[in-house]
Amino acid sequence: MRIITTRKNSIAGVFLVAIALLFSCKKILDPTIIELPTAENAITTSSDVEKGVAAAYSFLRTVVPDKVFLMGDMRADVFSSYSQSVNVRQETGIATNTAAALFNNGGGNWNQFYTVIAQCNLLLEKIPQINLYDDAVRKRHIGEASFLRALTYFYLARFWGDVPLTLKGVNIDNLARAPQEEVFKQIKADLDVAINNLELDYGDGDRAVRATKGAAWAIKAHVLGWLQDFSGCEKLCDSVITKGPYSLVTDTTNLLSIFVGKSREGIFELNFDANLRELQQNKVYNRTLGMPWYKDQSDGGGGDDRYLLCPTRDQINRMFTPGARDARLFTWFIRETYLQGVREDRIFLGKYRTLQLKGDTSTQNINESNIIITRLPDIMLLRAEALASTAVGRPAEAALLLNKVRARAYATPYTGGGNIQDTILLERRKELLGEGQYFFDLVRTRKLDKDSKITMADWYQRGAWLLPIDQGIIAKSNFMITQNEYWK
């Protein structure tokens, strides 16, 4: 990102802040308490804050791509392994919602999320103490830190429910889990601060990869939808759509530009640029791409495409009616594998195949596609969902938005019939597959038993939709942190 590279010393500055903050919320973040200098004196100027904001984005980029893909897509049972019994990747069991599978894939560990929060807390503590500060820059920094803290707590609450809530940059106290209501109150307060301090467009070339007012509107819309406030959700979605600087990418031959990043429909996304060393290894990219896009053999599969996570033909047909026209079949997926299938008729997800043109496909340094947190079709369909709810009751308007998303893909328009809420949910699955949304969609709409392997009785009455908490985190809190009820 530009904020990491505009000054020669900024990378070193980010590194120092990162090292300090890794241990700043010690007991709830890391089982091993290591006494290192805190960042008390690391932020004294607006330039230091800029570096600190860059570090916060970097920390978020470290945790979100893998965690959200695995727990937002794999857990929703929309990807499969070549075999369920041999040559199985460890991610395959996530859809079964078993403790071992979730723990083995980081589903019990929230430490990295709290690293992001600790960084944001420190920034928000230090910014008011700095005197020489351009007012517009100060407002932007406050807005960005508040936005990132809210987004991170939103992930935590959707994954684990009640979670420790701290607003301190350095906190060595053991903290119990705060009720979700308290956490969501803070999330909404932070997003309001972000909305009041951020602009819609900064025009500095960092489209979508730094927080804006539109991004804060979009995330707050998701928060209100999660809380079943569909009236408030609909209004915020409308603000994003009608007041934001966003528009659909309509050239169906160039839809992959969305995932290269910074497209006109991008609202907030995590920037990856190999030239800036914004790299990650063994993440969503090489889990879903085979030859010739990904050639490295260190993914646990020896470079063999049987280890890739792909939809099966049956899973594809549950999304797209066979024979029906839809441009996403040959843009979201690799055409050759859709036409012929590979390894027991599986189809490669191709949203990130821009790596072949942009990235280094012979090593792990392949991060050229951005990770989308939210984009315009997400908010259009979220508004359609809110409009179609019984609380709002405007299904005709919902159908118009649904059909705008379908029209971009040359898909058959919705003309009525069936359950429009189910139709919108299916459209979200088709449009946002591989972007870590669908499991959250199923929980929000109370339809987890529709596609996932979690039964309604388990997920709703017993809390099976929540992730378990790693026993090490519980023990190091002196058992002030307790396990989620379903996993006891």
Give the helices and strands, then pairings.
Elements: H1 2-5, H2 10-21, H3 26-29, H4 46-72, H5 99-104, H6 111-126, H7 135-160, H8 180-197, H9 213-226, H10 230-243, H11 257-260, E1 266-270, H12 284-288, H13 313-319, H14 335-340, H15 355-358, E2 371-375, H16 376-388, H17 395-408, H18 420-432, H19 438-444, H20 448-451, H21 456-461, H22 471-476
Antiparallel strand pairs: 1-2
Helix pairs in contact: 2-4, 4-6, 4-7, 6-7, 7-8, 8-9, 9-10, 10-16, 16-17, 16-18, 17-18
Quaternary status of these chains? single chain
Q: Give the helices and strands as they follow along the chain.
A: HHHHHHHHHHHEHHHHEHHHHHHH
Task: Count the E strands.
Answer: 2
Any idea what the radius of gyration is? Answer: 22 Å
CATH topology of the domain at 2-198 and 455-480: Serine Threonine Protein Phosphatase 5, Tetratricopeptide repeat
Q: Whole-number average pLDDT?
A: 84
Number of alpha- plus pi-helical segments: 22
Helicity, as a percent range: 40-55%
What is the CATH class name of the domain at 2-198 and 455-480?
Mainly Alpha
* End-to-end Cα distance: 42 Å
Report low-confidence residues grouped into runs of 5 or more. Answer: 1-38
How does CATH name the architecture of the domain at 2-198 and 455-480?
Answer: Alpha Horseshoe
> Order of strands across the biggest sheet?
1-2
Assign the structural class, choosing from mainly alpha, mainly beta, alpha/beta, alpha+beta, or little secondary structure: mainly alpha
Q: Describe the global form.
A: globular
Strand content is under 5%
Largest sheet: 2 strands, antiparallel
Protein name: SusD family protein
Domain RagB/SusD: 348-450
Subcellular location: Cell outer membrane
Main location: membrane
